UniProtKB/TrEMBL annotation:
GO terms for cellular component: cytosol. It comes from Coprobacter fastidiosus NSB1 = JCM 33896. Keywords: Methyltransferase, Transferase. This is SpoU rRNA methylase family protein. One of its GO terms (biological process) is RNA processing. InterPro entries: Alpha/beta_knot_MTases (IPR029028), rRNA_MeTrfase_TrmH (IPR004441), SpoU_MeTrfase (IPR001537), tRNA_m1G_MTases_N (IPR029026). The keyword Membrane does not apply. Gene3D superfamilies: 3.40.1280.10.
């Protein structure tokens, strides 16, 4: 089996990407401090046609060399908006008819593998700070919480890894 060359991958331009139909998903980063994590979320969002990324609180917006290091230009292709307060972003999305999920370990959460989505609905997922997770005030505003089951000695995943798992599952169900 031969690896594909860059030309065989048939990449689209940023202009073509912006015209593509996106999945009805917005990814909200709630006080994510690592610029490498932010860049990684942009890159995954580009790969799976996420509608937009909302950067909230201390989450740094582009342009920034540390974001670019992992985003590799996806920060220029994926639509993004900055909100000083994550609660304001969630309120705005609710007003626009989005169903908003916190990705957090909470009572009565939905296990990611049990999640059922409706292709006629619009969704947003909130990913939290690397240490503190999603703020409780934000969890309280969300319609529900999704939990990724874990079976080892650790009870958390890196936020960019979590984003990859969640975005991929949403893509499979909404595309």
């Amino acid at each position: 089996m031969k690896k594909k060359t860059i030309l065989e991958l048939d990449r689209v331009s940023q202009e073509e990407f912006k015209k593509k139909n996106k999945i009805p998903l917005i990814v909200i980063l709630d006080n994510v401090r690592s610029l490498n994590n932010v860049g990684s979320v942009f890159r995954t969002s580009d790969a799976f046609l996420v509608k937009a990324v909302y950067l909230c609180g201390i989450t740094a917006p582009p342009p920034h060399p540390e974001i670019h290091k992992t985003a590799l230009g996806a920060e220029d292709s994926v639509e993004w908006h900055y909100f000083e307060d994550t609660n304001a972003a969630v309120d705005k999305l609710h007003e626009e008819g989005y169903i908003v999920y916190a990705i957090e370990q909470v009572e009565n959460s939905i296990i990611l593998s049990d999640l059922q989505l409706n292709k006629d609905c619009k969704y947003a997922v909130v990913l939290g700070n690397e240490v503190k997770g999603v703020q409780q005030s934000v969890v309280d505003k969300c319609d529900q919480s999704i939990e990724i089951p874990q079976f080892g000695t650790k009870h958390s995943l890196n936020v960019s890894v979590t984003a990859g798992l969640v975005i991929w599952d949403f893509f499979k169900m909404l595309r």
